[in-house]
Amino acid sequence: MPNALAHEAVAFRKSSYSGGNEECVECAADGTTGVAVRDSKNPHGPALRFTGTAFAAFTSALTGSELAAAH
What we know:
Shape: globular
Distance between the termini: 34 Å
Low-confidence stretches: none
Strand content: 15-25%
Helix content: 10-25%
Largest sheet: 4 strands, antiparallel
Number of helices: 1
């Protein structure tokens, strides 16, 4: 995927599960076959980009028991 992401060209959205505590990420389809993720506090900052497959595996791990809670 290209390194640059035109923030104006994609529609980022915050999860409906977000509690509004300013510790959120926003996701958007990146215009190809991937997903862009950014910090909601810095909407004009950098975005991490994932392939659709990698993002699906990541979110599956988050909702499952594959990742241990950090202490």
